[in-house]
Amino acid sequence: MKKYISVLSIAGSDSGGGAGIQADLKTMSALGCFGTTAITAITVQNTLGVSQIHPVPVDIIAGQVQAVMEDIQPKAIKIGMVNKPEVVEMLATLLQKYPEVPVVFDPVMVASSGCLLIEEETVQMLWEYLFPLSALITPNLDEAGTLVGYPILNLEEMQLASKKIQLKAGTNVLLKGGHLQGNPIYDVLCEGSSLLHIFTGNRIYTHNTHGTGCSLSSAIACEMAKGCSLLKAVENARKFINGALAEGRNVQTGKGEGPLNHFYQPQKLIINELE
Questions:
Q1: What is the pLDDT, as a whole number, of residue 115?
Q2: Residues in a beta bridge with 198
Q3: Is the pLDDT reported for residue 113 higher than 70?
Q4: How buried is 98 (Cβ within 10 angstroms: 0-12 exposed, 13-18 middle, 19+ buried)?
Q5: Residue 236 and residue 217: Cα distance in Å, rounded?
Q6: Torsion of Cα atoms, 116 then 122 then 128 then 131, to 10°
Q7: Cα 108 to Cα 16: distance, rounded to the nearest angstrom
Q8: What tens digit of pLDDT does each residue of 44-77 get?
Q9: What is the pTM of this model?
Q10: How many angstroms separate the most distant Cα atoms in the chain?
Q11: CA-CA distance, 135 to 190, in Å (whole number)?
């Protein structure tokens, strides 16, 4: 008997297809993994922004997670949009049952268009319930600024903020620096309480960056599901995202911020021997 490498995305749906669940499934497929989902919210969204958010009832989200975890048994979990306190508490209760499955949490708070995607009272619950259960959290500069309480303006402040978040959250932190101006761009991985890895890359100038954070966190989850170390998973995922940005930069999708090209170099669905 054989088995696919499966990954679960717990996130919101993007009707424009560029971010959220849709970006996660595209990423998972492109990296040779079998994607499964638990939808937390339905957004009315396109390349111009988010106009409405319809939350999915908590019991339906819980049912989706349980159905996937009990039957398909994914090797990693990615969490994206979680915008209500009761959803945070429910997920924490469920995920405690699966401590062997690594969780990559992209704390989606603000859309790239500037729209607020999370209730303010939910942020404190993330610290208490979901961050400690995660193997990695992946805030961008705006999200990290929300978490530490001040704007982050340069590489030095990125390093300090990642350490501060790591100490408070008790988990690894990948702070993404793509929103800083200039070239090169930096990402900072704070692994444990002492290891700090700084990634440097050339900026890819493009309007098609919608869903970059969702895709990166999903890619990291895929690489961890394949058995990679955290550092190697981040390195592989960054390489995938850079390629997807480069290959999609000259394509127009909609009238606003377009998506990446997830399928610029797709892998075949990986099949392993059943354990």
A1: 58
A2: 188
A3: no
A4: middle
A5: 11
A6: -30
A7: 17
A8: 999 998 899 899 999 999 999 999 999 999 999 9
A9: 0.95
A10: 53
A11: 12
Give all strands of the β-sheet with 195-201 in edge-to-edge order.
49-55, 34-46, 6-14, 76-79, 103-105, 136-137, 172-176, 185-191, 195-201
DSSP 8-state code for residue 255: S
Quick one: 52 exposed, middle or buried, by C-beta within 10 A (0-12, 13-18, 19+)?
exposed
Report residue 71 as tokens. Answer: 């039957």
Determine which helix (DSSP H) or strand (DSSP E) holds 197, and give its type and residue range.
Answer: strand 195-201
H or E segment and range at residue 68 = helix 58-71
Among 25-29, 107-111, 189-193, name the one with the lowest average pLDDT: 107-111
Number of H helices, E strands in the chain: 8, 11
Annotated catalytic residues are: 176, 209, 211-214
Helix (H) or strand (E) holding 250: none
Using N-to-C axis directions, what is the helix angle for 230-248 and 212-225, rounded to 10°? 140
Please calculate the CA angle 258-262-264 and round it to the nearest 5 degrees: 115
- Cα–Cα distance between 3 and 1 in angstroms, integer? 7
Q: Which of 155-159, 179-183, 187-191, 224-228 has the weakest average pLDDT? A: 179-183
Structure tokens at 29: 């497929």
Q: Which residues contact 230 (CB under 8 A, 6 or more apart)?
A: 135, 136, 172, 189, 191, 224
| Residue 251 scores a pLDDT above 70 | yes
Residue type, 58: V
pLDDT for position 117 = 62
CA distance 204 to 198: 18
pLDDT of residue 110: 66
Q: Which helix (H) or strand (E) holds 211?
A: none
